Prior knowledge:
Elements: E1 7-11, H1 18-28, E2 33-37, H2 38-44, E3 56-58, E4 64-66, H3 68-86, E5 90-95, H4 101-110, E6 116-122, H5 125-135, H6 142-149, E7 158-161, H7 167-177
Helix pairs in contact: 1-7, 5-6
Amino acid sequence: MSTTVQVIVLNGGSSSGKSxxxxxxxxxxxxxxxxxxxxxxxxxxxxxxxxGSEGIGFAADGEVTVGVEFRLLEDAWxxxxxxxxxxxxxxxxxxxxxxxxxxxxxWEKVLDGLDVLWVGVRCDAAVAAGRELARGDRVxxxxxxxxxxxxxxxxxxxxxxxxxxxxxECAKAIAERIKxx
Length: 181
């Protein structure tokens, strides 16, 4: 199997299973793919940007807010991801489109001219909330708030549901969609 797709963008709420799907895609696709997630971006930001209004904030009820400084670094990160793809890397992006279509438009702008597969990773809110609780590293309520929010107004090339299928099954369904004709 060879692909023409250069970027796979996985959009889903917190604890929906995007990272597991990304790892499974790396295993089932014959070419080497880098898996890059918004969580990695957050992890490498200065701690002060995870606490203040200029960065990214996590409210007790699970709401996420982003400030100007976070947005500037996120824009640079997105441009960097696109540059890696233009330099020859295949990339799986694991993101949470809190802004719905506006979030996708930001990616579309930086990925312009590249062959992108847009994937909706759905997961029932109760299932995602259970995963969030089991993980223990997330603000309680985030998964439930984001489960439907990130998909509002969105269209995808393919959708998978991790409440109904294991990550490997979802990855195989996605891989089928990127085979060359």
